[in-house]
Amino acid sequence: MKLRNKQFLVKQNFIWNVLIILIGSIQFATFYPNFVEKLYSTHLYVGYAQILRWLTGWLPFSLGDVLYILIGLYLCYSVIRLIKICLVRKNGAQIWLILKNLLKIVVVAYVWFMLSWGLNYHRLGIAYQLHLQVNPYTNDELCVLRDSLAVKLNSLRQQIGQDSILPSPDLITLYWQAPTYYQQASKLYPFIQYHYRSIKNSLFTPWAKYFGWGGYYNPFTGEAQIRADMPRILIPYTVLHEMAHQIGYAGEEEANFVGYLVARESGNAYVAYSCYSELYKYVYNELLLRNTFPDATPALDTLVRNDFKRVNRFFMQEQNSIAPQIMDLYDVYLRANQQKNGINSYNEVVGLLIAFQKKYKKI
Ligand SMILES: [Zn+2]
Q1: Distance 6 CA to ligand 1 centre (A)
Q2: What is d(CA 289, CA 299) in angstroms, rounded to the nearest whole number?
Q3: Which domain covers residue 302, as residue numbers?
Q4: Are residues 141 and 193 in the same domain?
Q5: Same domain assignment for residues 114 and 143
């Protein structure tokens, strides 16, 4: 019995030593973005993520969501058990054992998260790959971008048609087509290759309004989950954004920008319109933050304005008091992962767009 206890202790110490070495190595790697970019993000991660998508892509439901539900249930069970032991049995040794197990689960989850995706937050990223000079921008540059986006939006809306209601393509079709747009874009940008589709409806869609997201990537299963009940025009760009996460662009502004590069080359007016509508809102937000409202801008087409109003109405109807709290938590998560502007990181795509427009003279 004593020998078995000793073996157990040796095994536990070994596991903790391995975990500590892994955490140290991960932290060390985060100081070397060049190393992360060249060894991890564009090599090791690419192969690993493709295997994950190959394994989970064929499943008609999100395996990651099922795992999240199971983990949630296990955590609830552990907390109830802990409370019971604290209040009823008052067994200190058992309480310590449960806490130690929970801590081990948290540490393993952290190590797994960082090795299976999180290190991508510390890469050099898309600006490095495209040799873009991303600098602070002026209000005038912001206005030039907004005007260019407005012209694009008006033109794309005309290509979609004159009907005041936008088409509503089938979700599966949108998921199915998205990888072909990546294939198309990779001819121009060889580093944005996407293989093995793994895009699912989120099982949490009925509660999504309380979480405030349109999609999310599960780094443990490689799946991209999409909120299926959003206005359909938001779906194509959300899918391209999540796919960018899948291929290793962890930062929100990076995923937005890669989604833009792909939508731009898609040759599909509906997909491009979905993307430019979102980008226009980011630029508009920036102008609002700076209290800048230029007079002489190309007006948005009536059809475009009506589309915007319809989307706004959808989100106004589902406003609630829980979503802002969840967003605050998400803000903390982003700040802890190299996204110094937290939830506003999505808006940082504006800097990338201005740099891109300056370099390539197009948007
Ligand atoms: Zn994202």
Answers
A1: 46
A2: 20
A3: 126-360
A4: yes
A5: no
